[in-house]
Structures are given as C-alpha cells and as structure tokens.
C-alpha cells in the first residue's frame, strides 16, 4: 500500500496521517444518530470483538471449574499464568515479528521513522528497549494481570461478587458488555492523570515513558505499581452486578488491548490492498509530548480537561499555548516566592 495516500512523511522519515484524530460520537453534542450508526462498526471491529471472543474462549476452554476456584492454592493460578504468558508471547510476538523483525511493511504508516532496535539507551535494562520491555511484561505485567484474574475469579466462585447469569439478565449484561471499553477508558484516564503527578511520574510512570518510540513490547512495560493500577480496571466487576466472562473481557481489553495503542504504526497491512487501523495515533502523541491525550478518543475527557491533541496544527497550537501559560504561572509563582523571601530576610 502507498501510505502517502493517507498521510505525509517528513525529512526524518516520520509519518503522520492527513486526518486529525476524531472523537467518538458517543458524547458529541448535538448527538447525531446517523454519525453514531456510521461509527458503530468501528467500535466492534476488529479489536473489541477480538478481545470479547478471547474472553469467551478462556471461559470455555481455559478457566478451571468453579469448584477448583473456590480454594486459593498454587496449581490453578500458576496454570493461568502459563496460559496468559503464552497468549501474550504469541499475540505480542506476532506484531513484533511482522512489523519489527521481518519488517514486512517496512516503514509504511510508521509514526516514528526509526526502529527502537536501532537505538541504545541507558534508561533501559541492558540498554535495550525490547529486552527491557519484554522482561517487564513477563516479570511484572503478566504476573499482576494473573493475580487480579485469580482474585476476581475466586471472588465470583465464592459468592463475594454479584454473579448474574446471561439467561436471567440478558439486557443488563449485554449493556455492560458494550460498556467494557467505556469503563476501561474512564479508569485509564483517571489513573493516568494520577501517575503523571510529579512524585508518581518520577518513581513509577517514567518506566513506561522511557519508550518514547513505542513498539509492541512497550505496551505492558510498566512499573509494578502502574501494573496494579492499570489492571485494577477489572475490580469494577466486583461491585457492579456482572459475570466472570465480562470480567475476563475487561482484563483482556486491558492486556491484549494495550497493543493497538503502542504498535507504532497507524495501519497494519493485511495483504497488498487491505489494512487494519490501529487507532494508535492519539496515544502515540502522548508518548511524544507526555502531557496530552491521557485517554483515547472514546470519551472526550481530554477535550473537557483541556489536554486533547488531535494531531492537527490547531492541536499543536493549543498544546504550545498551554505550555506557555503554565510556564508563565510557574515563573510568576517563583518570582512571588523570591519577593516574599527577600522581604522576610530584609524587613
């Protein structure tokens, strides 16, 4: 495919799409039913349907019997860890192999023209981004994902969480299934703003932001505290009347769903004439500029809080203006502090 039909490339080889990132019409005013139904297929295909199907497959073939999950031990949690690790290796590895090892589409649709493997950086373990990201994914990410999974399944099995059957509550559970991405978006925005506060950014979130040029294995490369906050999205299903399959869907949306936002390409080519949209540009801009797009485009939280960047020149101007205003406020506060200190020292 010719990526220059969809965007442009600068002298450094960085590619940007022609169209700015569009907000989902869910909360757009005035609400347009036509726009909503035109957007709806993109809500399901391909990613959300894939993650929902993986949750159903887990429940059908992987998750142990309820009787087993009523008792905490080493056996079934270690089994789930092994399955989650294998699924992560296969799913993440497929993107890594196709796009970064074999480079089957070269740099077509790649936001950053350089590949992470070309750059050594002391911020990473062994100065290698990929090795650092892989180790953090399996040592901490899959471990905490599995721990959250085990805790929630144990709670459902023992009646500590309100377990509704699909046959008895089809409408509510269908609505809750549709809301899984919305729950994730709301949760992610809140914890993301939290870990961008100075203390937590320095000691926790900076680990993830070391990957300025993200690749598939960057998706779950986080500090353990961030992993716990991130996978905590599943705990809503301990409060809401829900079903274990939907709790699994929530976890899979977080675990496998981290890939599209970090794949580094706007489109993943499937054959010579077809490609799947990654919808990664909004989050790529967050990795590039740090203080924009704390969420994605499903709920316009960034727009409401003034941190939205859609990739357009207007978005760039808004971001720079916000930076200037913040710099001026900090300078004024420093000047006022210096004035007061000087006054106190020289009455």
Summed up:
By secondary structure, this protein is mainly α.
Distance between the termini: 73 Å
Helix content: 55-70%
Mean pLDDT: 94
**Shape call:** globular
Structural class: mainly alpha
Elements, N to C (H/E): EEHHHHHHHHHHEEHHH
Give the beta-strand count.
4
Strand content: under 5%
Describe this entry's structure for a reader.
This is Sterol desaturase/sphingolipid hydroxylase (Fatty acid hydroxylase superfamily). One of its GO terms (molecular function) is iron ion binding. Pfam families: FA_hydroxylase (PF04116). It comes from Amaricoccus macauensis. This protein has helices at 33-44, 47-61, 66-69, 75-101, 129-157, 170-194, 198-209, 224-231, 244-255, 258-262, 281-289, 301-305, 313-345, and strands spanning 7-9, 15-17, 267-269, 275-277. It is mainly alpha-helical and 347 residues long. The protein contains 13 helices and four strands. The mean pLDDT is 94. The protein has two domains: 26-311, no CATH class; 313-347. α6 (170-194) runs parallel beside α9. The chain starts with 6 loop residues before the first strand and ends with a helix. β3 (267-269) and β4 form a beta hairpin.
